[in-house]
Amino acid sequence: MASKWSWVNAGIALGLLNITIFLSGNHLGMTTFYSQTTGYLVNFFFPEWIPDSYWIKGTCGGAESLSAGWQWLLVLGVFIGAYIANRTSKVEVPREDIPEMWIGRFGNRPRLRFVHAFIGGFLLLFGSRLAGGCTSSHVISGMSQMALSGIVFGMAVFAAGITTALLIYGSGGGA
Amino acid sequence: MNSLLAIVFGIMFGIIMQRVGAMEYKNIIKTLRLIDLTVAKFMFLSVGVSAVGVFSLRTMGLVTLDIIKFNYFGVMIGGLIFGVGFAISGYCPGTCIGAWVEGKKDAAFVFLGGLAGVLVYTLVQEGILIHIGRFDMGELMLGDFIPLNTLAVGALYSITIGIIVYVVDTIELKNKEKETAALGQEPDI
Lengths: 175, 189
What we know:
The complex is a heterodimer. Chain A is an all-alpha fold.
């Protein structure tokens, strides 16, 4: 098996996987994992600060409690899957601390990159919770059901994402 | 059994995302900079393939839809915030976990930022929900607005997405050809 899949083969594979997930009565989503993990950690260290039900409200999983539910195990699978794919890949994946493209723009400053990464991650999940889902649940799963929420979310993500990326890197092409 | 399925589906999802390169910062940013739209084409092709399958199976009664409510304010503002985070981090909530497994240190910080984002949202959500609750239009999908058989709408939707992806790909290929041609001609001038 080749080590990189073309977008056509991978797109068809993901489509078929998505259909299978629907057939099993579930649906794809990554955000709930974050809510369950954060909720579990906070409740472990600071019980009675925030009620359990607050954590799950508005996530894409529809879980009722903070237990390691279906969506949590799905992300555990992604963890294992990425590991398997990495280990079996014939193409060497660089174990870089920070991306080369980012260094080309900002210089070799790992700490600054980690700050950017943290802020980016914060916005990703804050936005996901506000919107009720992320790229997996709104775009891959939601848009497959022609959901208005998914279509509008997808357009908003790309509108803001393209604008921000062009502002960061400048509109000139080139790698 | 269902729990086992979750892990199996997760593994397959992780392998596909890794193999197509969606777990790499440079590929996400190349897409957002409109240099190389591979990740976007991959995502939307999968939506096109899924939609026709999902609506066919629904007609046979094998699949029920599970649509996220359309709170147009929440979805739009949430999507815009997500998009900014997408461009700054270069990862999604799912792919940063895979990238972390692959040894990308910055992806771990995206994950930690995500946990912080959830915490802050949870603390302020009561205040937000009071104000945006009225923008909730319920579980809406395109088929609700078009007076046709839902399966037909689903098929048209899939075909439309397929055509858009094909056209984008053709334009990209032509641009690349032009670039190589321009580079090749330079020495002659």
